[in-house]
Structures are given as C-alpha cells and as structure tokens.
Task: structure prediction
Amino acid sequence: MTRQRRLPTRPRNWRNWAGRLGLLTGLWWIISGGEAESWRWGLPAIIAASLVMPAPDLPLRPSAWLRLLPLALWLGLRGGVEVAWLASRPRMRLDTRLIEHRWLTLEAPAGRLFMASLINLLPGTLTIRIEHDRLQVHVLHYRDGIADALCRLERYIAPLFNSTDRRDEEAA
Result:
C-alpha cells in the first residue's frame, strides 16, 4: 500500500513545513550569494521541494549532536587530505576493498541510514549496501583502522537515534 503525500493541514505539520521551508531558503541564500535574480526561479523550487520533502525524523539531543560534530568534521578533513595525497601520487597502488560492518549499537533504521549517508560524505568511502544486520562499504585505500573507525562512528551516532543508550542499560 502506498502512502500519499498531503499538504500540511495540522499545526504541527505546518511547523515542520515552515522549518523545511526556512532551511531550504537559508541554503538557497547561501548558495546563490543572495543575488535577487536567482530568487525568481529559486523561490518556486524551494516551495515545491519543501512540500514534497519528507519531514526529517532526527531527534533533538544536543549533547549527542555536539559529540558527533567534531568527529564528523575531523573524519571529513582527514578523508579529504588522504584523497588529495592519493591523487598527487598516481603511481601509488590503491588497496580498494569491500568491507562489512556488523551493526553493534545502532538499532533504529533512521540511524543506520544516517550513518550510511555520513560515510558517503567522507572521501574514499562509499556505502554499497545496508542490511538489517550489516553495512557494506567500499574503501578506496584500505588500512588497519577502518573497521575501528566505523565502530567508533556508530557509537557516536547511536545516542542520536536509539531510544536508550546501551551504556545506561549496562550500568543498570
């Protein structure tokens, strides 16, 4: 059974839509440099996108987001430097591999999808497949710490999406 998209009718839906509209408007303003001419076709596109864009189901857990942000920035910076280094050394042999990461702490499908998307933003890695018990990742240049880095990333993302943190369960 398919689910139909409807225009926002309830107050909460209107708030969600207004939030998406504000986010997309802000992004458009940044991308376009605030040029007035770009709003002629940008505004209709923003409105249409905000109407069909699903409401994100990201929980508001500021401390977990603040813990994740430095790690995500560090991984992105390190990955960018690594890919630039590999590109500047064309004779270097790449060690590309497909690796599997078994889910350890992430229970929520939204959290698993978020982690897979975050991996795709890091240069040199690409999520190939998401399954109920594992994640398959293509690595451009394999090294020993990759599996540990994926486990650490999962531990940082888990408090954002899981109903309870496993550390709380273990302490009880």
